[in-house]
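seq:
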Amino acid sequence: MSHTSCQFAIIGAGPYGMAVASHLGATGVETRIFGKPMDFWSSQMPKGMLLRSPWSGSNIGDPHQSFGLDQYEAALGSPLNRQLPLDDFVRYGQWFHQQALPNLDPRNIAGVERGGDGYRISLDDGERFYSRNVVVAAGIGSFANRPALFGSLSTELCSHTSDRPNRDLGRFAGKRVAVIGAGQSAFESAVLLREQGAEVEVVMRQPQLRWVQTRHFIEAMMDSKLYPFKAPGRIGPIGLNWLLEHPALFTMAPRGLQDKMAYRAIRPAASIWLRPRSEHITLTTGRHVVAAAERQGKAHLKLDDGAGRTFDHVLLGTGYKIDIARYGFLSADLLERVRTANGYPVLSRGFESSNPGLYFVGATAAHSFGPFLRFVAATQYTAKVLSGHVVRAQTKHEARSYAERPAAVDAS
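struct:
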């Protein structure tokens, strides 16, 4: 065990990890952050992707709001596409790291276990150290949802949209590919596949594909200085998006109503700007796969209406299923001490789990704070709330320690 230690170890160097590290650092808290900056975005998202979130909802939070997209664009000295291509967003995140967190450690965390009144942490190169607190900001890369019925297909025949080889969808040029799903990831992947020369069929349960569209006059109204209900992330329909971006209000609703509102805001749909690019993509709506098998090096799918299809590859745009046990670096003993609900940790208002000193941010916090926490737009809110919680807890601890000190003896 190394003798090095810190107050906070942050696992993950994506938007959430970097936002939390910058806020905690600004309060004077001793912080170490680990991971390759923007790794999930740069290695597990397909080339050519555009961010679904608007420009206003794609800023990584920092305590002085000095490192947003506007500042990055100014530093570049040239305008950026307001639809924000993936590669531009990755470069922005890496610029944020260089400006706000130059001491970021690119090594990965291999293990976290309880130790004393804190945590023993192992790095992938074998180094071990101690931290009083841990913030898990490891993203969703471990949570790809792979329906069991596709389990009989080899990885050569079936993969998830987030699998690293699918960073370059050009490898499917000239192939016949089935895309399973009806959300942004599924449909944008289908468009990119078609543009790379693949023959594509999208299979979805929904009776029709939903399109996400915001009218220009609504956009102008929401951007107006006179409009009081700002919702930079613009997650869901107008009105509901404002409520989602105020988790303290959103979570006052009964759980059943929260779930209904969350589904309405983030139900499977595709951005309207994909529509002109979707010509020549076959849509099979109102259907789902009931069986999958490999036959003569091809994937054979059977649909619920009895129809059969044969493909060179099946691409799963089936989203993500949160289960913190799938991270792999949290010890079994530690996981047993974390209260969960359907795989999500149940968190306090300061993002702390039932195991003291262990925090979760990003999509893993969505059960406790709502779907806003699934988006980059929530990094500022998250980092501000978590760092404020830490500062208040430290102040209380110091006040209690001072009160418990023995009174000075007057020797006169």
